[in-house]
Amino acid sequence: MSTTTTARSAPTAVSRRGDAVFAGLATGAGLLIMLALAGVAIFLIIEGVPAISASGEQAYGKDNIVLYVWPLLFGTLLAAVIALLIATPLAIGVALVISHYAPRRVARPLGYLIDLLAAVPSVVYGLWGRAVLAPAILPAYAWLADHLGWLPFFDGPARTGRTILTAAIVLAVMALPIITAICREVFLQTPRIHEEAALALGATRWEMIRMTVFPYARSGVISAVMLGLGRALGETMAVAMVLSASGIITIDLISAENPSTIAANIALNFGNASGTKINVLIFSGLVLFVVSFAVNFLGRWIAARGQVKA
Amino acid sequence: MATSIDISDLNIYYGDFLAVEGVDMTIRARSVTAFIGPSGCGKSTFLRSLNRMHEVIPGARVEGKVVVDGQSLYDPSIDPVAVRRQIGMVFQRPNPFPTMSIYDNVLAGNRLNAKRMKKSEADDIVERSLRGANLWTEVKDRLGKPGMGLSGGQQQRLCIARAIAVEPQVLLMDEPCSALDPISTAAIEDLIHELKSDYTIVIVTHNMQQAARVSDDTGFFNLKAAGQPGHLVEFNATSKVFSNPDDPSTEAYISGRFG
């Protein structure tokens, strides 16, 4: 038994040393990621737990930790969801233009341009949102408050451009490249024979897209949106710079009183925090971690389920 | 419903590349016309030019005339989408829509016309088309199941049912049996025989026995030389092409000697 084992493994070990090295490196890299993730989770839990009993001054004047974190979570979700409501149709449209409508010499540069949006640092988006977009969009908010003020979203009064809606628009621009890139890839993978089947039946290009491209790409689009949502949830700098936050819960998108987001709130307050306040902020980070993790997991799960079906 | 097709001096280009040159022929109504020839000789390209499907490839264009029922297909006022609703097509690989049931696959073309159909009307079309494609008895108990669950031969007959559901004037078939086993192939060939009483059928095939079995007229396409455009060498009654062809290269091809 032992002789056969050595006889078989000895030449294998010699001839595959390169394999062994790379396998070791790859495994090590994979383990490192797991360790980093576990380390972050453990840090968040250990440092966040003391905040559960925080109240009053320690919890920034709130009675307990839930009352402190909930408005922040609400603001985070509100900004991210609005951002996706704006970005998703836009991204699908742009991806369709690139994959099915534009001639190739237009589609390529357009694709590069969209990818470039992802390369802009978020602090630049923050500057742009605060210095350019916010003042420029204020008249539009005033108009919305005047004419659509009966909707709770546009109650107003519109006194500043630095609202949750402006933050959401900036987030939408930031989430656009990732959603567009994934949608474009799945749209391009639609089997040609299905597209031709639709065209041969007398489908127009739009009908062909509805009959073949969308059904085929549905799970890919959903996972793209989920990844975009992950990006929008965690974005810190741009929101911190754009949003004029007061930490309230409201669905009025254009008033001067805006909910803050978890990430921006941590960035703005951590430098001055001490004692249990630090734990409170870290606990809010744990909440964001769990939500982002769940969103990404859900996105991957939907994508994987769709692949099995196709 | 069925109609003849007159083609005169048709050149087909992909960009600057001339793929098929100078085709003249008349395809008779309610008959089966087969195109044979070596790979790359342009017979599929020519077939696709008959319902403007080749235009799906960027840069593709034609010169010359294709006249169906007195109407030129390439008249500037003609919408290619309208052409494809009149001239159906079946492809080399069965391509039912994967997300649709058998029932919805058959009705896919009818629903494109955006008319609201009554349920009974839709049921009638599905049954008539599936019976027309010799598939009804095999699938009538599972119309709600996905079309992809059928065998390859059944999928191809489903595609034929889908094509005839919109009652086209002409049915184009691009090597419809090349991905099928011999039994499924026989089923499709029987079907072609039945369909020709109602439709004008044009079929491209690599299988010369198949061309001899199913067609009334046969066109032989060939390349003059590598890199040269494909052209129509001979177009005659199938019996003549396979027994006493006019052109020596036709005889060389059908007897297995190339050149």
UniProtKB/TrEMBL annotation, chain A:
Keyword Protein transport belongs to the record: no
Keyword annotations of the record: Cell membrane, Membrane, Phosphate transport, Transmembrane, Transmembrane helix, Transport
Main location (coarse class): membrane
Organism domain of life: Bacteria
Membrane topology label: Multi-pass membrane protein
Coiled coil start-end: none
Pfam family, one: BPD_transp_1
Listed InterPro entries: MetI-like, MetI-like_sf, Phosphate_PstC, Phosphate_Transport_Permease
Keyword Protease assigned: no
Residues spanning the membrane: 21-45, 65-98, 110-143, 163-183, 213-233, 278-299
Intracellular or extracellular location(s): Cell membrane
Location of the ABC transmembrane type-1 domain: 73-299
Family as reported in the entry's similarity comment: Belongs to the binding-protein-dependent transport system permease family. CysTW subfamily.
Function: Part of the binding-protein-dependent transport system for phosphate; probably responsible for the translocation of the substrate across the membrane.
Classification via NCBIfam families: phosphate_pstC
Protein name (record): Phosphate transport system permease protein
From TrEMBL, chain B:
Pfam families hit by this protein: ABC_tran
SUPFAM superfamilies recorded: P-loop containing nucleoside triphosphate hydrolases (SSF52540)
Keywords linked to the UniProt accession: ATP-binding, Nucleotide-binding, Translocase, Transport
ABC transporter domain span: 5-248
InterPro entries per record: AAA+_ATPase (IPR003593), ABC_transporter-like_ATP-bd (IPR003439), ABC_transporter-like_CS (IPR017871), P-loop_NTPase (IPR027417), PstB-like (IPR005670)
Source superkingdom: Bacteria
Gene Ontology MF annotations: ATP binding
PANTHER family (UniProt xref): ABC TRANSPORTER I FAMILY MEMBER 17
UniProt xrefs under NCBIfam families: 3a0107s01c2
Protein's UniProt name: Phosphate ABC transporter ATP-binding protein PstB
UniProt organism field: Nocardioides abyssi
